[in-house]
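Apologies for my clumsy wording, but could you write out the amino acids of a protein and the tokens describing how it folds?
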Amino acid sequence: MRILSRISLALLALWVIAATPARAEKIWYPFEVEIFDPPFNAERQRHPGTYTPLDAAARPWRICVSIPHLKDEYWIAVNFGVFDEARRLGVALQVFEAGGYGNLETQRQQITDCMATDADGLIVSAISGDGLNDLVAGYLAEGRPVVDLINGLSVDGLTGRSAADYWDMAHATGRYLLETQDSGDGTVRVGWFPGPDGPAWADSGDAGFRSALEGSAFEIVVSARGDTGKTAQGELVEQALDQHPDLDFIVGTTVTAEAAVPILRRRGLSDRIKVLAYYYGPGVHRGIGRGQIIAAPSDMQAIEARIAVDMVVRALEGSLELRHVSPKIRVIDRSNIRDFDASTTLPPRGFRPIFSVNDWGTGNDE
């Protein structure tokens, strides 16, 4: 009787587990955004609004996604965002990464190959601001929508853009530096690392940061560009410190900030030289929480990626109205990190890149 009771209890427990509904997925929308009006204007004219995506796609559209690389978790968050939104909407999707900002020809070939498989639309985070213009113009002429995700494209006639302006991101970082860090009586020496040569976002970031510091006591005494791999950025930081050991701040990409933390620790400079990033990733998130990095703004790249997928679907279905949107930028530091919804910006813990969704293509399918 006792054995039967135990078996019955075990069966009851299994039934309860099976009958309990799965925890509902977090709904990311409606989401506060800035709507650029007119779209793609260079003067950054915009107004606040909200973005609400479709409940589902009308059919399983086939969408190509091209990103520069997956060498840091910023782009892994983008990978998660496009994958999860494609799954939610019920569309097919392939993601390609070119391996780094020096690989424009690789990105061009990957886009060409993917779009040749009768893809319906394209999302692209460009390695070069104008290096893909001929390809993109061709797809637009064929009536296939192209959405610019994050990095910036200069081609005319884009279908849509889901991207914060990196001028704003870097300018917000510079303003934070001026408003929260004591300049004392003399010059404050800054090392500035805006990212690679070529992509529009790095040029915009460089201009925005310099604009914020103009006329202040904060002086950029060294600046260097390079690929956003940790090795490349670490070498730039090492070279800057060899030439300017009296720096007060290191400011740059998320990878710059992540690379700078152990370098400063090894050189015994962690207490004297402070670090900021001008966009956000998991390493920066951890660094802020541990007091190793002062602050960084988030462009909420996982949300930008979701919006890009919805934009393409809306364009294919004739319902695209908001053609250029950006999440509202927020600067995160230790004072507000607990209130920050990290799911807008970081991939879930343990997430690994996925390259094909809903049985389109081979390898790493959902």
